[in-house]
Structure formats: structure tokens, C-alpha cells
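Re: the 581-residue chain
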Amino acid sequence: MRSLRIALAQINTTVGDLDGNAWKIVQSIRRAKELGTDIVAFPELAVTGYPPEDLVLKPKFVADNVERLRDIAAETEGIVAIVGFVDLQEDLYNAAAVIQNRSIVGVYRKMFLPTYGVFDEDRYFQAGAECPVFAFGDTVLGVNICEDIWYPVGPATAQAFGGAELIVNINGSPYHVAKSASRERMLATRAVDELVIVAYVNMVGGQDELVFDGGSVIFDQRGEVVARGSQFEEDLVVADLDIEAVFRTRLHDPRRRKGRHIFESLGDPAAQLVGSSPLVQHPKPPLSGSKPKLYIPPGNPGEVYAALVLGTHDYASKNGFKQVVIGLSGGIDSSLTAVIAADALGPQNVFGVRMPSRFTSQPSMEDAEQLALNLGIHLLTVPIEPPFQAMLETLAEAFRGTAVGIAEENLQARIRGNILMALSNKFGYLVLTTGNKSELAVGYSTLYGDMAGGYNLLKDVVKTEVYELARYRNGKEAKAPIPERVFTKAPSAELRPNQRDEDTLPTYDMLDPIVKAYVEEDKSFEEIVALGYDEQMVKRVISMIDKSEYKRRQAPPGIKITPRAFGRDRRLPITNAYRQW
């Protein structure tokens, strides 16, 4: 029986850390050898980290990445390694090196370059034009990269018709809610359509606004899961594959014979065969005793929560921050931010700061203190009344004859921002802002105030989902970290007497569906009204969203968890006179 053992090395790389990434790759190769693995595959652009963006426009960076690939190749005696890197052949390519016995036996260059949403690969890379397949004795392997496998008729089709019985697809596929479900449906379909085993390896970890969820998976030719990796953590997925079963299945399916003639008649690229040494027959220890996989059903709030924790941890650690500071208002947003930060970095590395003013309620002070006690984080109290009064006196002449209003309210937010940034400067803390997607959408935030900071965990989480995530996290422990009163009191910025968010905004259960429809689904004014929302309210919300683009451009980066996040996903001009009515 023809079989082989494959390992999918789901590693957490860091963009630009060529030495660190190469070390992780080498360690995984060595571990794969210990397990008797024939083939080990790594994520897309594993050597450089993904996405490297304009780093690839630096010639030395590209040359150094190729040099690290040579170092990695030296570790491949007796094993086949598939490693993502930047290939330079008169132009730049997003490529996968197929390495065996210390030699690069072939290179696959990505054919379909995504340039939409968060992707911008046409800016950097030339598209590949060839579909090699690799013969290792009587085992034929196809390799392609990420986007390539999403096309129903694409490189995988050519490689399958070219004799490949196993397709290895290497990925840097960023997370958004429930993406794993659509991804696995596609992979199962591709395996059945091409009558191949599909081994899909995805990176894991946070990179700026993106989170990669891992979830590497292998489907057999019947579309059934052979093995699945963990989500949101590093993993080495090892499985024994029955290659002979692919051949037997193909004998019983005449569609393949007819499909090949159709494919070739359309002029689609044929696969080129690259031969190399047969796979080394290693002793194969039994695959048993592996730890339980972290797998969260799509749509479960735990999936989003895990993404936020991983994104927070990696943004801080990869940028050299050991500790974070958060303004604790006693509200739901700052409470959830603090809990996520404590889970990501350890409570000993989280500093909460209460900054009461004349308008801060006693319950808010108490709730912030109780949260800090429950979590075990540090708590400072820095009253803003003295600097607020000083600012009012300083501006008294300039403001003479005007009514007290938003300017005075925002002074308080900006004083708080100054305090947090001062603590950051003094102690090296990363300032985590606490605004959510609903507020950022409509501009219910203060530039250089509550928007001042280094990272925003909740940037892509609307207010109603903030409550859902907080409830989820409270339910994980017998002693809930977030005080119950935080859930029940009316949301308020507490910048004037008896202030409530709903004095300025529609209630969040009305606002959030409109924000999602307009921002994430690109629905028009008329389409949103047709969903049953008040015409004037929809017009008002859309106007606020459009007029707040200049604020969002100045907001800190935050974690993408929806298909359409502010920032890399949604790029609208600040100067924009278009209106839908």
C-alpha cells in the first residue's frame, strides 16, 4: 500500500524576523523527522512572515530571505519540506520551495494574487505561470498557495490532471467570524472534485490588525476530515495518508477522464512534472497521545474572544511591550478590554487607571475597582478635576459668551488621554484604547482623547457584541470578573450631568444593525430603510458614518474580526461629497 506521513507546521511567524522564523521552521523540521514524517509543510511566506508589505521592496530583505531558505534547506536530509518564501527571478514572486535532501528541487509561484479587502499582492508580486507537480518515487505531489485553491478550475485542477494525488496548499489566511466554516466547505469540495487529498496548512498569530487562526486541516478524496489542527495556537498536525486509496477512487470515477479532455481543450495550463529522489522510508512511531485540539465551532463567541486575546498578545509582544495601561471608566468597553488584556498578557502586566471628574458617578468608581480586584490587575487613581479646572480657567476668555457644550466635554477626554500617554512615556506601557466599532463608525469618540493610544482591541466589535463577549467571558468562571452592574446600567461617557449615550445616538440594538448593513454589507440608504428602519434615523446614522472618516484615519490599529473592518478593509476618501439622497 502506498502511504506517507505528512506534517503541517502551523507556526506563529513575525514579519521581518528572518532569523526567528527560520529557527521555528528548522525546529519543526527536526520534530517532524523525530515523528517519522515524509513531508512537512509550512505556511505562506513563512520565512518573511505574512504580509511583509513594502519590506519586499527592499532588495537586501529579499536577498536575506533567500539566504535563510538555504540555511533551512541544510536541515532537510531525509525529508521533504515545503517552505513559503519570496522568490526573486527578474521579478518578485510569492513562492513555495520544495526542498529534499538539502537541495531545492523545485519552486511553485503563486498564480492568483488577491488584491481586495486586506490583500494587496499585485502591488508586490508577479503572478506565476506554471503548475509543477513533484514525483518522489511513486508519489506525485502538487503544491500551491492560498488563493490558488479557491478557484474551482485552477492550479489544483491542473496538478490533479498532471498526476498529483496529494495537493499541499500553504496559507496566510486571516481570520474573520465563521471563516473556518466556509474555508472547510471549499476545501472538501476541492478534494472531491479533483479526487485528491488536500492538505491545508495555515499560519497562526497576530500581525498588526490581522489575526491568523490556524485551523490547518487535511481532507481525503471523499471530502472527509483526516486531521485538523488547533485554532489560535501553534500546532504540528501529523497524519498518515493512504495514497493508494486516491488511485482506487479515481478508477471508479469516469468523470476524471472526461474532465481532463475538457480542461485541456480549453487551453488551461498543463502541469509540468519535476522528478526527485523517492521518499526515505523512516521508522514511523505510532501517532497517539496528542493533546486535545482547540476547536471552537464557527459563530461561537469563544471564537471571537480567542482571536482578540491572540491578537492582543502578539501585537504587544511582537512590538516589544510587556505591559499595558487602560483607562477604566467602570463601563462595559473598558471592562472587556481589561479582561482580554489580562487573559492575553497576565494580570500582573495590566495597569488600570481611574480618572474621575466632577461628573463621574460613585457606581462607576466602585465597578472599576471591583473589576481590578476580580482580575488581580494594578489600579491607579488619577483625578482629572484639577487639570480640568485649570483648562477651563485658561480658556475662560477665549470661551467668553458661549454656552458650555462639547468642547468642555472633550477637554476631559483629552486630559485623560494625556494622562495615559504620560504613563506610557514614563513606564513604557502600551496604551489600549477602549472604543468599539459602533462608536468609531458614527464618530462618538474624541480625537486625542479616548482615541489616543497604541492599539484598540474592540475596533471591529459593535456595542451589542461587546456585551455578548463580556457575558461569554463571565460565564467561563465561577467568579465572574465583570461586575453585574456594568451590564445593567445605561452606557454613558459621563462628561456632563446625567449623560447617556442614547441622548446622542439611537439605542445600540437599532444602531448596530444599521452600521453592519452600511459598513460591512454596503447596503444603500433605500435598502436599509426597506429592512424596516426609520428613514430619518437611517439618514442620520449614514451621515454620521460618512462624516467621521477623518477621525477613523487617525484611530489606532485594532483587530479585524469581521469580513469588513475599518482600516485595511474599507478605504473611503475623507473628502467625499457623495450622498445617497
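The chain has two domains: 3-276, 301-552.
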